[in-house]
Protein 1
Amino acid sequence: MTAALDSTTTRGTIDLGPAVELVSKEEGHRQPLAPEFVSAEDFSPLEVAYDFGRVRREDIQAGPRNIWRYKKLLPVPSNVEEIPNTEPGCTRLVKADRLAKALGVKSLWVKDDTGNPTHSFKDRVVAVALAAAREFGFDTLACPSTGNLANAVAAAAARAGWQSVVLIPSSLERAKVLTTAVYDGNLIAVDGNYDDVNRLATELAAEHENWAFVNVNVRPYYSEGSKTLAYEVAEQLGWRIPEQIVVPIASGSQLTKVDKGFREFAKLGLVDDTPYKVFGAQAAGCSPVSAAFRNGHDVVQPVKPDTIARSLAIGNPADGPYVLDTVRRTGGAIEDVTDAEVVEGIRLLARTEGIFTETAGGVTVATAKKLIEAGKIDPDAETVLLITGDGLKTLDAIENEVGPKATVPPSAAAVHEALGL
């Protein structure tokens, strides 16, 4: 949770807005703001601690139409919107009545984050990471990635005039490779899965002091960008928290930060402190958090990923235990779905709401369907689904599933025949 500190906390010369210190998640050890991600005291992940002061709805609404409208709640410089960046956020919240009817629920919304600059929510976290990295004196933006983060880092670095170093598994979807390489940064394919790539990134981060690995050495700041999904959902709903929300799980950070965003809004009095449930979604071929939840475990056992949902294929999710805590505290659940169900989830969202999502979104939709059918999601409660990436990135998932209904000669009669008219 967010640590509350008084305004006398020393911050030095680093301008990260309301951020005042780092605090360890397990035992609350505090230390100065720095590009570090693990506490030397208890070896748990570090999180940003804030002194928010007073934040009003009017202040937020007067801000720009991007995530910097929430800059008073993020670890970024006070002039962040004046520095070249990709300006992500303020994506649409869609009232999904046709999907709601198909799923058998009363009130359903889709938070469609495909509208971000590189078509995924990763633009949010990277923008925050870049802003913090600049304050710490880095000059190269880097990451290990399953695809969407690679796109976002390469684009953000290009916009900022920085070098980028992006490490990806060599088996990554071709579309995500191309949409990273086009920015002409340093794209390196690694023989191995994401967990292999992530270990390599941690090693390189220790060797190159000027490289800001967004999800390694500046991870505490990077992860805060996911809070803006919660902020936007609450603001777009008319300053209220939805009763239920379904979030895909990769590292698990997004789910925990969405929860954190809702709690911060409530604590600041921006929304009423109403109860809500958080649900997690995984692919069956990489479902260590779902398995731990199902079996009542507190420890997440690593697995070797084998799923078409490559953007969620993290076999050893760093925030897995905290996902379990969040879901259990809010009364939610975690479920996983097969690759076939993922594809059907993609198609269901497309044909009901005209939104084409990547495989991660297919996981979210299919998991929501499964949870509804199992009676774990209340069909009468207002529900939000997070759709975090564009389907154009994972065309291979549906290339053998969809296509023309028929191929006909150029005549009206042939068209009528094909349509059964």
Protein 2
Amino acid sequence: MRSSLPFTPQNCFAVARDEAEIQSLLNNDVYKFLMLDFILAHPEYRDIEVRWKMKVRNHDVHLAEVIPESALREQLNAARHLGWVSQADISYLRGMLTTKWQPLLREETLTFLKDFRLPDYELEADGQWGYDLTFTGPWKTSIMWEILALKIVNTLYLYHYTKKARLSPSEFNGMMTKTFSRLYADIDIFKAHPNVTFSEFGTRRSASTDIHRMVLEILESELPGQCVGTSNVMLAREFWQSNPRGTNAHELRMIPTAMVDNPQSIVDTMYRIDREWMTHFPELAILLPDTFGTSFYLKNAPKDIIQGHVGCRFDSKDPRIAIPEYVDWLLQNGQNPMEKLAIPSDGLDAKNAVDIMQRCSEQVGKLTFGIGTNLTNNTKGTIPVEKEIFGPFGSFSVVIKPDAVWRKDESKWVSTVKLSDNPNKAMGSPERVKLFKQVFGMAGMEEQEVSV
């Protein structure tokens, strides 16, 4: 008998309907398209061979115990062989404009996307409970796997967990009801503080595309002046938003710096990339300084970057520390903080967004937020405790990052590095991490619990 309950696996998960989770390349964060546009414009970057790897940061999350390998392969294969990109999709991408009414993406990029295909993947069992998931290919094509694969992994984990835990229809409905009750509680907090604005950044760890769509519909209805957009290109199009929200990611600095060994060359490459990005996207000249440490980045930033950037995204340092540090740096360099944009974006929810706003809003010209997992996958602890038998249920910290680049002239793979302001998020081989720590130091870094 068909359930009359509002939430069922069939209306929450594509896999429960025997459908592909990824049915469009646009079901992706906009910064992937922006970075693609950038690297296609720079021949020295586009064909760098990059190896990407999945890493589960939570040691008590055992993917292979929950997600059948056949189910994971089926969804990855569906994405891998998807025919992309439709003319309607191209038209939407072409319609994304700057504030000066210029196309955001170049025609070369749109032409490239018409015949786009993802490179292949490698999947192996990693010990008893994990998976070793790897993607290898030129940066210009492998760039698109990260978000799509993360969506697949997160969705399959939740769906197969509920299936293996044998949740009854009522229990499943209760789980989803709790999840959306949390969303409405956050909405109440936002409504009580109408000066707090945010973009929805939850694509990579959304519970599913179906649930993501429900969340965004509620946010659009309940907080039309405060939820200013989504990073998801497909959903931005569905909800008639002119431009999705986003700029760039850490990979933009991780990959080129892996091509050099000299300490000064590593530093120069980091700043060169940001300089080139600012030239390519002047309106999106928003710094992401925590790749190798915010304090080093600010202290040593070249004058043209100081003067040319329009704002800063704070990703792994507590914004209550990072924003004052950023403001002091601006003042020391003759810049007006009231002309800059600040975007905290790591592990936020309504309560801490409000707290940050109350403490820091008068320090910069505009303070807005990027909020992700806690909007689109706020599922931790929502199933009956006696059914939580395969490790923790709900969202968990999983990433897919550049792992290494292939140096053709030396015929070898070289590890990429991300230090982060939170050493618990550091990535890279021990040798390269040691080198980068020697180059950038550890000033301003502080270990914090990784929740997303």
Protein 3
Amino acid sequence: MKRNTILLLVVIYLVFIALGLPDALVGSAWNTIRIDLDVPLGAIGVTTMVAYVMTIFSTYNAPRLLRRFETKTVTFVSVLLTALAILLMSRVTHYWQMVLLAMPLGFGAGAIDLSLNHYIARYYKASHMNYLHSFWGLGVTFGPMVMALTLRDGAWRIGYVIVGLVLLAIAFFVLLSYRLWEHEPAAERHEQHSDIKTMTLLNMKGIKSSLAIVLFYVHIESLAGVFVASYFYMIRGVSSSTAALFTTTYFLALTVGRIVSGAASHKLHPNRLIVIGEVMILIAAILLSMNATVQWYYFVAVALLGIGSGPVFPNMMFMNQRHFPVEHSSKITSLQMVVGYLGFGALTPLAGVAFQETSIRYYPFLILIVSVLLILFTIHFLRLRLSNTTT
């Protein structure tokens, strides 16, 4: 691999760290933030919903942006926007201000995600896609880790400042790397990001099943990122800093799962890696739903949930250019990610409302139900695609 190609990969991996950094910040610190801003547990769902409505908007329209601008430009502006939003969140005094700042945060995340997923799928191998998402895992692990340290003094705002400054530094590296990116002429951009209608895509064989897979997987990931700390704090009686470590454990394990998946992709087909991961998620959900007297048992269960989560999303993204026509891949990826973000922005807030009205003790059982649905839709999807390749 050429030196410039390696340097660019390093920059892209840094950008995916930037993408992951803000994702679990609010969830890991929510027990302190909600007291500081005087809002109930379920209010986190509003911030989540606003952020992901904007993420959905930018993701859906990202193919249009990529038809007009090169990937490097979209990436730089998006990281910069995210950094500014996080820094300003450290200064909020009312909850509505945090909700307002969730808008640029969500917009930047959606544009980064779609742009780099398509870029890696086009120019690199399956292993690089898994490694790319493992760096997102590093970011989403580092965020709660910083927050866990600052929460020892109740200083959640300092955690936001640290993360915001790291994001600014990454944006600067993207700007310095402009000459390393593949040149994307206007004609090529128009060809790669076709303006196919959404309803036409939905009529393609296997699309609906693939959308369901992404939806339910992302919902499991968001349930872990947003509510795992609250579950162990409120139901298992751990301290707020220990609760934040459960969030860190999940995302650290998810990162490990993606690194292992990247190495395994040299031997195993991406479809098989997806199935292996989903079975591990199901086993982890069963373990979480049981009562145990020792804390390490739950750390093991959460770690297994994270490792199982590792292979699912990156391999689904990578296989788009193999399962479907290449010229439609960015639009298909966009649509999958839009539906996936509904898992964050709609299903997860609904789960928050349900927990508030009943009890968050039902959290493991919700993960169990969703993991079963995930496996059933994956079986259906793979049968459709395999039958399509043999006819």
